[in-house]
Specification:
The complex is a heterodimer. By secondary structure, chain A is α/β, with parallel strands linked by helices. Chain A contains 13 helices and 18 strands. In chain A, the strands form three sheets. In chain A, strands 1, 2, 3, 4, 5, 16, 17 and 18 form an eight-stranded mixed beta sheet that branches. In chain A, strands 6-7-8-9-10-13-14-15 form an eight-stranded parallel beta sheet. Chain B is an alpha/beta fold. Chain B contains eleven helices and nine strands. Classes of the chains: A alpha/beta, B alpha/beta. The interface between A and B is medium-sized, with 23 and 28 residues. Chain A: It comes from Novosphingobium indicum. Chain A: Keywords: Pyrimidine biosynthesis.
């Protein structure tokens, strides 16, 4: 039980499961939501937060981040993150998983993803069941695809037996090789090693077949191409336990962002064509994509102030996850309810945690959001441990005004009177 | 005979760029200006006395992060013939992990107050990265698979000497286009000057969407040669290949080697060019490489020195406060 006083968030517009928005209050006690609705009122002794008519939403649940970067997550309204096993050393033994699972508390929850294979080598299975005991909720292949189909099949069978979803990276390594860009005019003009975008569809096709064979659940961390999304869409229709994620870069940017060798646009998988970008937007709209992740991967100048091919892939995405996703709401691709399904409810469901929704009994991870508030992304002033964002100097809308983890205040931002 | 797009303004407006990082971004008249500037040095280099103290007192650093013999030598001779103090910084690729200290190295060179830095690096974009960090002009002597602008300019100078006009000229570039910065710079340069550029390679060595760079794509060498006025051969860049791109050099020669017999498919006066180093008996037969009157391979080397002298001269004019260039 929490020793903190109960919390009431009053005078908010509550984003409820199903997507309805209702004016009212929300009360939390002992770390859980105990009452939600128009009639809820603060009780004596409660800590009261006045939401001042702003949107009250679940805290974001971020699947597949590379660093625990609390200031950035808190800025972005993220209260839980599933951290990739690609740490140094990798999360491939129970002790490291146990340590990682504790590393964010009390104001942030880290859900470590167990490495699928020892040393993330893609060859021999890691001790997945023991890592589950230590707190791993899912298994991940890491930054790489598992090339050996037999290993991948056994992994899916084993994780399926344990009831753990396998989070896969979808790029056929035989085709990608040392590529840092998607094959196309941009990569050709820049002279960058590139691979055809079909590398993704090939990996997805195989992994769907193997998941189907094993009867196991698979989640593709980022699906970024029209062909890959078509495969996911088809498999879902057949009833395969497949889900797909993406990060905002792939619906906001195309490979043109790599112009002038901008290493902040060096991502993994690499940025795709404009047609693929449009396909990602359509897939978010039609429900093919289940999860939007920040894929937060802060990288300092030692990794990014290099020639493009020598630079490390990845972007610091935690702070821009919400505002960039809200672009899709403003553009009418999705509504607010669906946005928070993608950002909170679906990832929570995938991990099997009772969070990501404003409902009685769920964990009290709550954000107060002004979805219209404008601000400018500035890589020099980010909360993240590094400012490697391809959205530097871009105006965005949507800001987290207050954040609560387990019914306890994490941060509040002074709101200017209207 | 000069096309209107080749006419350049007086003084510094003729070449407003601080550095020469690529052909991309150069207007046709800027290319033409550099070619015109090179002519005086072609003349000079044919005299016994080859030195003119244009750059005396200036320091030029040749920073080659990737092995080179001919380009390094060409730049060194170019700088010395203009009277500059030329320093070569050869970085063994094995001792420096590429990129790791690149910015630091650039800042060091900058602090030594070089007046121009010539850079070759194995990574595409590396030269631009340095150019953005230093105070002096930077010349790209080849960056990864991106650009090799002085090679394209010297090739254009060679072609201009032999053919005089570019409009409608058919140029066939055959070889490892995928890994070739020479091909990219030449495509940009030649099509900018009005030539019709064809590229020929097996699919594995052809970059995706290369046709968007205003070229015709061929896989059949005989078809690519038909009616060509210039045939530019490239070597296979084995050192850049990860995995197998062609079955064997013998098979490659069978399909893409330039023999006398094949050369007959081109125009009777077609020029044969190669940026070097050549692999005789693979992409080019010895009798073609040495074909008097047709092979321009040694002329290319000669033009290279003159063209690089022109680039060093033009790019340092602002620092030297030449009239019209301040």
């Amino acid at each position: 039980m929490s020793s903190h006083a109960p919390l009431t968030i009053a005078n908010g517009r509550l984003l409820l499961p199903g997507g309805t928005i209702e004016t009212g209050a929300l009360r939390c006690e002992g770390g859980f939501i105990t009452a939600v609705g128009p009639d809820v009122a603060a009780q004596p002794g409660d800590t009261v937060h006045d939401a001042a008519g702003k949107l009250v939403t679940p805290g974001l649940v971020d699947i597949g981040v590379f660093e625990i970067d609390k200031p950035a997550f808190h800025f972005g309204g993220i209260t839980r993150a599933a951290v990739m096993p690609d740490q140094n050393p990798p999360l491939d033994v129970p002790a490291r998983v146990r340590f990682a699972a504790q590393s964010g508390k009390p104001d942030f929850w880290v859900h470590p993803l167990a490495a699928a294979t020892k040393d993330l080598g893609g060859e021999s299975l890691a001790e997945i069941a023991l890592m589950r005991e230590a707190g791993a909720l899912a298994v991940a292949t890491g930054r790489q695809w598992i090339g050996d189909s037999g290993t991948m099949l056994r992994l899916l069978q084993y994780a399926g037996m344990l009831g753990m979803v396998v989070i896969a990276h979808a790029e056929d390594a035989g085709i990608t090789g040392n590529a840092v860009a998607t094959a196309g005019e941009m990569a050709t003009r820049l002279g960058l090693p590139s691979a055809p975008s079909e590398a993704e569809a090939l990996a997805i096709a195989r992994d769907i077949a193997l998941a189907e064979l094993a009867g196991a659940a698979i989640h593709f961390r980022k699906v970024t191409t029209a062909a890959g999304l078509d495969l996911v869409r088809g498999a879902k229709q057949r009833g395969v336990k497949v889900t797909a994620g993406v990060s905002p870069a792939y619906f906001m940017l195309s490979d043109l962002a790599m112009a002038e060798f901008r290493t902040f646009a060096h991502l993994s998988p690499p940025l795709r064509s404009e047609a693929d970008r449009q396909a990602v937007i359509a897939a978010v709209g039609d429900g093919t994509i289940d999860v939007i992740t920040s894929s937060h991967d802060p990288r300092g100048p030692e990794d990014k102030r290099l020639p493009f091919t020598d630079s490390a892939p990845g972007m610091a995405g935690a702070e821009t996850l919400l505002p960039l996703t809200l672009n899709l709401v403003r553009d009418g691709v999705i509504d607010m309810g669906r946005a928070f399904d993608l950002l909170a409810a679906n990832p929570a469901k995938l991990l099997g945690v009772d969070a990501g929704r404003l409902a009685v009994g769920a964990e009290a991870d709550i954000a107060v959001v002004d979805p219209d508030r404008p601000w400018i992304v500035d890589s020099d002033k980010m909360a993240a441990s590094a400012g490697n964002t391809p959205f530097d100097k871009q105006p965005v809308q949507g800001r987290v005004l207050a954040l609560f983890k387990g019914g306890v205040t994490v941060r509040t931002k002074k709101t200017k009177p209207a | 005979m000069t096309s209107p797009e080749y006419i350049y303004p007086e003084g510094g407006a003729a070449f407003p760029h601080r550095s020469l990082v690529g052909i991309a971004g150069l207007a046709p008249h800027e290319i033409w200006f550099l070619l015109d500037e090179a002519e005086q040095w072609v003349e000079l280099n044919r005299n016994a006395q080859k030195r003119r103290e244009v750059l005396s007192g200036l320091t030029i650093i040749n920073a080659f992060f990737e092995n080179s013999t001919r380009t390094l030598l060409s730049f060194e001779i170019a700088g010395k013939r203009l009277g500059a103090d030329v320093v070569n910084m050869a970085v063994a690729t094995s001792s420096v992990k590429k990129g790791e200290t690149l910015i630091d190295t650039a800042m060091t060179l900058n602090a030594m107050r070089a007046d121009a830095i010539v850079i070759r690096h194995a990574s595409s974009g590396a030269v631009q990265l340095i150019a953005d960090k230093v105070d002096c002009p930077v010349l790209n002597a080849g960056d990864g698979q991106h650009e090799h602008p002085t090679q394209a300019l010297l090739d254009a100078l060679t072609i201009r000497h032999a053919k005089r006009v570019f409009n409608g000229l058919r140029v066939t570039i055959c070889g490892d286009i995928l890994h070739s910065r020479v091909a990219r710079s030449n495509i940009l340069c030649l099509s900018s000057l009005g030539a019709e550029v064809r590229v020929c390679a097996p699919p594995a060595l052809m970059p995706t969407d290369i046709e968007r760079m205003n070229v015709q794509v061929f896989h059949d060498f005989d078809a690519a040669l038909k009616g060509a006025d210039v045939v530019m051969m490239l070597r296979l860049q084995m050192e850049r290949m990860q995995g197998q791109f062609i079955p064997s050099p013998r098979e490659y020669r069978h399909l893409y080697g330039l023999s006398l017999e094949r050369l007959e498919k081109a125009e009777p006066d077609a020029l044969v060019m190669h940026p070097g180093p050549m692999n005789r008996g693979v992409e080019i037969e010895s009798d073609v490489a040495d074909l008097v009157g047709r092979s321009q391979i040694t002329t290319q080397v000669e033009m290279g020195v003159a063209l690089r002298m022109a680039c060093l001269d033009v790019l340092t004019r602002r620092a030297r406060k030449l009239e019209g260039w301040s």
